[in-house]
Amino acid sequence: MQKTEKINIKWFYIITVAFLLLNLFFIARENYLFNIVPLGFLIILFAVFAMDRLLLLVVFLTPLSVPLREFIPRIPYDMALPTEPLIFGLMLLFFFKLLTEKKLDRKIALHPVSVMIYINLAWLLITSFTSTLPFISVKYFLSRIWFVVVFYFLATQLFRNYKNMDRYVWAYMIPMLAVIAFTLTKLSAYGFFNQKAAHFMMNPIFNDHTSYAAVLAMFFPLLVGYIFSSAYKSWKKIAAISVLGIFIIAMIFSYTRASWVSLLVALLFWILLKAKVKLKYIFVSVFILVGLFFVFKTEILMKLEKNRQDSSTNLKEHVQSISNVTSDASNVERLNRWSCAFRMFSEKPFFGWGPGTYQFQYAPFQLSYEKTIISTNAGDRGNAHSEYIGPLAESGVLGLITFLTILLYTLYTGVKVYRRAESKQTRMMAMMLVLGLTTYYVHGFLNNFLDTDKASALFWGFTAMIVALDVYHSKSDSQDLAQSKAVSERSL
């Protein structure tokens, strides 16, 4: 053995013994924080030498993250642990590498979806400065920045290797199985058909059943696509079938009507795409339907008020309760929140009240006859319950328009790849991603979760995959495989 190797081994044992002694010292004093040192050291190694693996680790930890308030209840601010500190660190490292190495592909940087994201972020920044609560808005803007930078811009570089798209998806789905087991185990103690208990059985991992079910719904198209994909081996298809079965059970016992509706709309969208209906006709039809709703809003609401079916453990009755806007507290409270948002918008239509401020400002806009048994003035039960109406109140008309353009360009890009790519695998993936995002776009009419790591990892991650397919993988099978192989061992 050479002298240098002996010295290295000697230092290895010295450091190991020193760490063990220090750790025993802290444990003896009931201080367990020193145990995280190896994990911290490992994360630093990943960050320096393998950012791609660190990103996948963050994705893996995202479904399992818990709020800081679970450990420090009265803290004035909150964050998801351990993911948000890691996401923030990844963002800083990404900017550092961008400045020193200029690695971001120009095609990604100037892609129409990326340009729309820049515009939306720029407007959020402007409305943060004009906000009625600037501190809240700047904090909201910064959280949006680190989600977009990591799960979109950094992820597009990860997806230069085609296989990393599947790795990203499974990195989220595998721990999600643990979340489902945790949720159903807790629910079993109350009886699986206890709807009220089912709303909060996923706490503290997910806030409630709506965010939990929204995440589940986004994976359904992908799992179905994996099952029918010719590129998947038999054992992978069996795994996809098993996971889909578990997700179906979890979806049923989530009692989340919005997610059920989103899956039906995604199925309808798939039928229209398979029928080769042009995307512009689909968009025009949606805008017409939305316009007709506002024109005949009074008549529609009068018709819906005849439905008195409340939410129920009976699946048929639970589905019927979707349109109950008279006695179903959840539905009526949404109308209350939306009405407040529209009144806020009418008062500040251009700049809005500031990103992230709705829950702190909506209380004075509530009308006594619109309140429900679950109404509150404290802003502690969610926000505007809409990815579209919320920005309208918080960032004005341009806040909504710039957000909608991201969605429209993403759908357009995904459908373009689906219809033009030469690779069957690429076309299948594009279709699955478009439908997965469609479930969230539909769910976004009734809830909003993009201020959380759990939804953002999928929303921006799927968007990044579609852009990466368009830029890197819309070639023939041989070209696509050759490019994927060329970057398979390359770190970010």
Give a concise summary.
With 492 residues, the chain is mainly α. 69% of the residues lie in helices and 1% in strands.
Helix content: 55-70%
Spatial gap, N to C terminus: 36 Å
Topology as a string of helices (H) and strands (E): HHHEEHHHHHHHHHHHHHHHHHH
Low-confidence stretches are: 314-318, 321-325, 477-482, 487-491
Order of strands in the sheet with the most strands?
Answer: 1-2
Write the layout of secondary structure elements.
Elements: H1 3-28, H2 37-49, H3 51-61, E1 66-67, E2 80-81, H4 83-101, H5 106-109, H6 112-129, H7 134-158, H8 163-188, H9 195-198, H10 209-228, H11 234-252, H12 257-274, H13 279-295, H14 297-304, H15 315-320, H16 329-347, H17 358-361, H18 389-420, H19 424-443, H20 453-472, H21 477-487
Antiparallel strand pairs: 1-2
Helix pairs in contact: 2-3, 3-4, 3-8, 4-7, 6-7, 6-18, 7-20, 8-11, 10-11, 10-12, 10-19, 12-19, 16-18, 18-19, 18-20, 19-20
Question: Keywords, please?
Answer:
two-stranded antiparallel sheet; 492 residues; disordered C terminus; mainly alpha; 69% helix; 2 strands
What does it look like?
- By secondary structure, the protein is mainly α.
- Among the domains are: 3-31; 112-278 and 379-487, no CATH class.
- It has helices spanning 3-28, 37-49, 51-61, 83-101, 106-109, 112-129, 134-158, 163-188, 195-198, 209-228, 234-252, 257-274, 279-295, 297-304, 315-320, 329-347, 358-361, 389-420, 424-443, 453-472, 477-487, and strands at 66-67, 80-81.
- It is globular.
- Mean pLDDT is 83; it is low at 314-318, 321-325, 477-482 and 487-491.
